[in-house]
Write the structure tokens for this entry.
Amino acid sequence: MYLDNLDELDQKIIQLLIENARISYSDIGEETGISRVAVKARIQAMEKKDIIEEYTTIINPQKISGAVSCYFEIEIKPDHLSQVTDILYKDDTVTQIYRVTGRDKLHVHAVASSSDEMEHFLHNVIDTLPGIISCSCNTILSRIKDIKGLRL
């Protein structure tokens, strides 16, 4: 299991937080059989160790009228990789960037408010990236399974 280096209580706390990041310390305490104060201390310790990185709200772009979600497979000349990742990282349309196996490839997710905005991103950002060998773009039609973070 991914969490073998954590004791059973920390594993249970993490599982409860994955199910509902807004669960209260008191409710976690009831589920685990420890006090609210002990829950808080354990969570703070896991935050300090960067086991728990953040709590966030995830918006499903497909539920917003007109939003377009795409992913790009980009092959780059090795000497341009750093420059390309910097450009993409700074762009608000880009939601995720992954370095993947293969010939200097990036897997990039982007979400735009409309087809026009996505086309603008494609022509003004993607098409102008230096050192591009090849690029493919796929529009995401629906989410069938989408697990965030660690699977337990």
